[in-house]
User: Which sequence fits this backbone?
């Protein structure tokens, strides 16, 4: 079927392409034009198939029925009849004449043929169908028929709302559970996720049931934003999709006029927050209305339960008992928020509006205000919902204007589950659980709220950027000079402890000295930094806080505590240096390696006894990678010509290493002629073409004693650790210990190396070693093979 020489699908795309995506208000005009063109085309189809017959009509639901038509939105059509005028055979023929041209156009079609009575019956049995039919709109045919169906479905929806509401709300919650929270997604589902387009239809359905007022304010602009993003996605992909994938971020952002795709994701997240917040409050209003209908016999006063400080609990929300002090008490919003959060109740929308109308806090804050703010941060699981409400009415921006720059800010690192602002609140919650471990829980909570405040557009190092921002914030909040210095230090160094614990030799006294110097030899500052480190990692998710990382931080903590207090650390101490196993020496004397595997927290300790030779470290690393093991750290020693190496490994599959296979592999490699140091030259990978890995290597000054510490950052790949080991061996260097860390596909490996005499490297040797490991890291990027290194 053609229309003015082109398909309706192409015409809808043309209409979208000629309408400015960057002009405010253009989205509504674009969707109206697409809707008019679609209606016109469907009307012509209808007239060809039906003519002017009475008792039958073509109606639309879904996006076309609601006036939300995108360039490639599905068509949801209903052929409605009165059940008397048109014969069943004629209905089948008419439907075929209508549906086949739509299918031929390339647009997706959801269709049905129903009598008015069937529409009403289906709506009575299926809540989803009822919600859809509430938006039934005439395309062509008998207008009275369509109006009658819409009226009867709407009346049934209102009369049955009391009994249908629980099931309806449950179905909404189940959908949210399946599709997630739109505001926290890097690949957002614009339609089905919490805060998406589907939830706007839920809002409309609840208001049409007369259970709640129509939400005002931010919902309509948020809806327009999401529809604009969906329209741009249709144009960019040429497909009627609702999920914005990573590879489409740049093109969709450019079409909408954003220079940075993160600004696009921020817009989507903020729009979803506005819709989600309105949905939650509307569902609470609907529940309250339903309960009032059931319980009310005559006029009743609302049941108010005092919670303290003029705040009362009323039907699942916190409300003010009186508004008389709003205009004179700037601390009232903080007090009300503390009470509501402690009782895990959201502040009612009207209460939030009233609180926002009051005066601002003075600058700097008085001690009372700072204490109340700390109490709010310490309120635990109830904080997030209360904070969202405060943010919705602008109170958070008054207290912390810098929040606007991180609000809804996406994080592309796959280990992060949340936007920057939500991660900050999650960290505050985790920090609250650790507050008893520190002497200043108020400073810990403030640092938790501010530790990532520097993750703003254009920041190169969010820790240092955040420290500068935090300095301004806490000065405005009225902290004294000493506390300000502590907050700035903790924000700037909130990543340092875990970096040291996972990438430095904890057996080297210089590592402990480094941490003590960092905190100014102050045990209280150290405990604050440790608690912030743990809270931050736990808030990120399980990938950031593994048993391995926790155990390393515990070991470092014990060493620092012992240094600063003189007390024996109540945490696992470092294992002694690798020692000879007399039973293993018999096998080594016969020329056979000996391997022992012991279970350790989160993995296994692999102890290898073998005749020392050049390349042993690299060969062992390669074997472990070939067997699917991920190396986390290694300590190497040589005693009387016997190498005693300890490796801590993890297995993605959960199976422990097999000692016999490792022994056989090492024996084969030793017999392969690579034991001579010069033979490693042929084992180095060669650089291919562009060197896409972009390996960087540099020396860490003063990070260790009697050794040179080289840190290598490279794209992770199977066999990387082996290749780096062979590169160092080829320079005649000995590897004393290795500390391995991997984030988001990037390897961060720290090598403690010495020359043949066990000394730190001279400058010339350092330059050669750095060049060698860069060449090795940027070498042959083979595809496939086992995961891990």
Assistant:
């Amino acid at each position: 079927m053609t229309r003015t020489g082109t398909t309706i699908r192409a015409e809808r795309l043309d209409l979208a392409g000629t309408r400015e995506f960057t002009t405010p208000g253009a989205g509504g005009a674009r969707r109206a034009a697409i809707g008019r063109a679609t209606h016109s085309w469907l009307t012509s189809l209808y007239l060809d198939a039906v003519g002017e017959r009475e008792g039958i009509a073509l109606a639309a639901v879904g996006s076309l029925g609601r006036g939300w038509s995108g360039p490639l939105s599905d068509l949801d059509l209903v052929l409605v009849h009165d059940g008397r005028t048109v014969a069943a055979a004629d209905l089948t023929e008419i439907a075929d004449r209508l549906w086949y041209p739509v299918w031929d156009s390339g647009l997706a079609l959801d269709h049905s043929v129903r009598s008015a009575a069937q529409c009403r019956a289906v709506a009575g049995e299926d809540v989803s169908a009822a919600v859809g039919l509430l938006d039934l709109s005439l395309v062509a045919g008998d207008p009275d028929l369509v109006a009658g169906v819409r009226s009867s479905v709407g009346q049934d929806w209102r009369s049955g709302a009391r009994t249908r509401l629980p099931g309806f709300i449950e179905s909404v919650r189940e959908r949210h559970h399946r599709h997630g929270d739109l505001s926290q997604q890097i690949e957002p589902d614009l339609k089905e996720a919490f805060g998406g387009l589907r939830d706007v239809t839920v809002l409309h359905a609840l208001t049409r049931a007369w259970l709640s007022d129509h939400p005002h304010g931010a919902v309509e602009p948020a809806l327009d934003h999401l529809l604009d993003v969906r329209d741009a996605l249709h144009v960019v992909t040429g497909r009627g999709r609702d999920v914005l994938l990573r590879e489409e971020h740049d093109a969709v952002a450019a079409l909408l006029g954003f220079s940075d795709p993160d600004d696009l994701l921020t817009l989507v997240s903020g729009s979803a927050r506005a819709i989600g917040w309105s949905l939650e409050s509307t569902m609470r209003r609907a529940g309250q209305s339903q309960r009032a209908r059931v319980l009310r016999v005559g006029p009743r006063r609302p049941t108010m339960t005092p919670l303290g400080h003029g705040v009362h609990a009323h039907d699942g929300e916190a409300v003010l008992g009186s508004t008389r002090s709003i205009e004179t008490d700037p601390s009232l919003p903080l007090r009300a928020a503390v009470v509501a959060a402690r009782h895990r109740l959201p502040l009612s929308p009207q209460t939030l509006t009233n609180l926002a109308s009051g005066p601002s806090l003075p600058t700097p804050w008085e001690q009372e205000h700072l204490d109340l703010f700390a109490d709010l941060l310490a309120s635990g699981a109830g904080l997030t919902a209360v904070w969202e409400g405060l943010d919705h009415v602008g109170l958070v921006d008054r207290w912390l204007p810098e929040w606007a720059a991180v609000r809804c800010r996406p994080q592309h690192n796959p280990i992060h589950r949340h936007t920057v602002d939500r991660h900050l609140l999650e960290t505050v919650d985790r920090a609250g659980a650790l507050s008893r471990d520190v002497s200043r829980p108020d400073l810990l909570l403030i640092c938790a709220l501010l530790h990532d405040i520097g993750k703003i557009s254009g920041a190169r190092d969010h820790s240092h950027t955040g420290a500068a921002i935090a300095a301004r914030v806490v000065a405005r909040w009225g902290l004294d000079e000493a506390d300000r210095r502590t907050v700035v230090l903790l924000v700037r160094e909130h990543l340092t402890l875990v970096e040291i614990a996972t990438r430095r030799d904890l057996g080297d006294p210089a590592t402990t000295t480094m941490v003590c110097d960092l905190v100014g030899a102050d045990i209280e500052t150290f405990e604050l930094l440790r608690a912030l480190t743990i809270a931050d990692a736990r808030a990120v998710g399980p990938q950031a806080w593994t048993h391995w990382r926790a155990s390393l931080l515990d070991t470092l903590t014990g060493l620092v505590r012992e240094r600063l207090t003189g007390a024996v650390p109540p945490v696992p101490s470092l294992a002694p240096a690798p020692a000879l196993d007399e039973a293993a020496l018999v096998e080594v004397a016969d020329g056979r390696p000996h391997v022992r595997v012991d279970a350790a927290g989160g993995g296994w300790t692999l102890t290898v006894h073998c005749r020392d030779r050049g390349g042993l470290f690299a060969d062992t690393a390669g074997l472990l990678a070939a067997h699917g093991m991920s190396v986390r750290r290694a300590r190497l020693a040589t005693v009387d010509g016997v190498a005693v190496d300890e490796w801590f490994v993890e297995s993605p599959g959960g199976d422990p290493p097999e000692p016999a296979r490792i022994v056989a592999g090492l024996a084969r490699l030793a017999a392969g002629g690579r034991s001579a140091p010069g033979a490693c030259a042929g084992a180095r990978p060669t650089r291919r073409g562009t060197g896409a890995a972009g390996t960087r290597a540099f020396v860490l000054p003063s990070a260790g004693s009697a050794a040179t510490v080289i840190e290598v950052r490279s794209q992770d790949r199977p066999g990387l650790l082996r290749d780096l080991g062979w590169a160092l061996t080829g320079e005649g260097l000995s590897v004393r210990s290795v500390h391995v860390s991997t984030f988001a596909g990037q390897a961060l490996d720290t090598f403690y190396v010495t020359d043949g005499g066990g000394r730190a490297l001279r400058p010339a040797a350092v330059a050669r070693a750095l060049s060698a490991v860069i060449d090795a890291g940027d070498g042959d990027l083979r595809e496939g093979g086992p995961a891990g290194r």
About this structure: The two ends are 59 Å apart (CA to CA).
